[in-house]
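**Tokenised fold:**
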Amino acid sequence: MIHPRSLFAIAKSFQELDTIAEIPKEEYIKKCTSACAGCSSSLNLRYVLKAAGPDTVLVVPACCTSVIQGIYPNTAMNIPVYNVAFGAAAACASGMSNAFRQAGKKTNVIVYAGDGGTLDIGIQAMSGAFERGTDFLYICYDNEAYGNTGMQRSGGTPMGARTTTTPTGKPDAKKDIDAIIAAHDPPYMATACSAYPLDVYKKVQKALTFRGPTFIHILAPCPPGWRYPTEKTIEMGKLAVKSGMWVLYEREYGKLTISAPSKAAMKKQIPLEEYLAPQGRFKGIDAKTVEILKQRIAKNLKRLVAEEAAP
């Protein structure tokens, strides 16, 4: 069911918003954050909030975003933010959304959580909120480790990546949270990447037109955790997409559509090594693991292409 917001204006923006310069100039996250240099999560959040607008409440569990807001009593956030326990974000958002709707308010309730708080610690509350049909948007910004506490391995860490708890490389595959969310059959879900902010903006804006639970999974390259120079953040995100390691798509009422950047990348896919080589976390990765990753990429792309083509 489409949410009764300004649908004409939203549809108009979908048709006409072609460049990043056309995105609204209002800022809801200020320049005084405590984020690391080159933080792509801050970039993501900037465009998430531009798409959502001022009538928005952000629910943030323990994660990097808890820190980048600044030190009390000051804050870099220009909207209300609830900082909650690691596993409680979706539960808090569920109660908050129900309260707003009972009061007749259309306020956007957005969970903005890392991969640790989504794929691992927060997955139970998130699954419950989706099963109950909570009217909210859950965004997972995925830097593929527990970045706020020293870059320990998470369920989102890819195979072969070195973290402080997998110093020789993670032996296990990345958890497929998107398949888990898809099993809940939400009206809308999507993947995105900080290197494509216009895509992030449009998908957030679209997600907020639906009633019920929606989900966006955003890849958020992390310079200190992934061990690459801070000025390479956008490049790293684009390499992830161009290599097929991260695929951009959206699924609306079960129908999957691969996004334009990934469709372009699939026509001229770059070698996976071009994505892995600049990152210190993949230093020393063995050829067998690289081959496994390539096979997984090929299998995933084949599956998504087939699903998009299905009637």
Notes: Confidence is low (pLDDT under 50) at residues 4-15. The two ends are 21 Å apart (CA to CA). The first strand starts at residue 56 and ends at 60.
